[in-house]
Specification:
By secondary structure, the protein is an alpha/beta fold. It has 8 helices and 13 strands. The strands form 3 sheets. It has a 6-stranded mixed beta sheet, with helices on both faces. The protein has a 4-stranded antiparallel beta sheet with strand order 5-4-7-8, covered by helices on one side. The chain is globular, with a radius of gyration of 18 Å. The two termini are about 35 Å apart. Bound molecules: adenosine-5'-diphosphate and magnesium ion. Adenosine-5'-diphosphate (ADP) binds next to α2.
Length: about 260
């Protein structure tokens, strides 16, 4: 690290800055400073059509490490399609997606699925927890798929349950949890493999006001505590207003 960067870190720390400066995000809590020096995700002219319907018309977008961005727009604007492409669940017809400079559009299915498991966490509108497994087991599943041993996966799941204030719910099955708890378990599952980014598609769309607010607070706590990056598709204006940056999508294009 260059001396100027150290000075910058010190100055950020002393001023407790949470700001967007020259395209980079700096933020800190009492103990740590996160300083972004690089773009984490780069979407370059992404296009996607379904038949004759062009759903994404050349989307270019950068996401910095530690950033929380929201994507808003009317129903049918292409938000879910964009998020699925960003998460490598769907392939674009044209354009490139770089994670830390690595072009994932060149990967084959096997490489992609390994990449996805390790680097990307997903949270959907409906929790999509497996009903026959406990909260703890649901959180362990992505780790077991990625090859983590049973003991280590179990202890990390316990740690995540603690972090999210859900220790008491570890042995409950989804049907025994409230809507808010299920979404928080889904967030814990998304965090399991310490992903670079969590992609969330209307994560609070099925929650009441109180649980919605709690979930939104959780995203920002995780950013402050872990430096976690989020891209969140949302209809919720109060959530969008809290994020570092809002991308407005209209008819498959970013509204300037
Ligand atoms: P949003 O999430 O903004 O509501 P979507 O990305 O889900 O929008 O959808 C954008 C448009 O693409 C819609 O018109 C939708 O019907 C269409 N679409 C999405 N997925 C498919 C698909 N797999 N096949 C055909 N059309 C699709
Ligand atoms: Mg959608």
């Amino acid at each position: 690290m260059f001396p100027s960067q150290i000075e910058l870190l010190k100055s950020i720390k002393s001023h407790n800055i949470k700001a967007n400066s020259a395209g980079s995000v700096y933020f800190c809590n009492q103990n740590q400073v996160f300083l972004n020096l690089e773009t984490m995700i780069e979407l370059d002219n992404i296009t996607r059509s379904f038949g004759t319907l062009q759903v994404l018309k050349g989307i270019s977008l950068n996401v910095d490490r530690g950033e929380v961005i929201s994507i808003t727009g009317p129903s049918g604007a292409g938000k879910t399609t964009l998020l699925q492409i960003m998460g490598s669940l769907d392939k674009p017809d044209g354009g490139r997606i770089l994670y830390d400079g690595q072009d994932i559009t060149r990967m084959d299915e096997k490489e992609l699925s390994a990449f996805r498991g390790k680097h990307i966490g997903f949270v959907f509108q409906f929790h999509q927890l497996l009903p026959e497994f406990t909260a703890q087991e649901n959180i362990m599943i992505p780790m077991l798929i990625a090859g983590t041993g049973m003991k280590q996966a179990s202890s990390r799941a316990t740690e995540l349950l603690g972090l999210l204030g859900l220790s008491e719910r570890a042995q409950h099955k989804p049907s025994e949890l409230s809507g808010g708890e299920k979404q928080r378990i889904a967030v814990a599952r998304a965090l399991a493999n310490q992903p670079d980014v969590i992609l969330a598609d209307e994560p609070s769309g099925s929650l009441d006001t109180k649980n919605k607010e709690e979930l939104h607070k959780l995203f920002f706590n995780l950013r402050d505590q872990l430096g976690q990056t989020f891209v969140i598709v949302t209809h919720d204006e109060s959530l969008a207003a809290m994020t570092d940056r809002t991308i407005h999508l209209l008819d498959g294009a970013i509204k300037p």
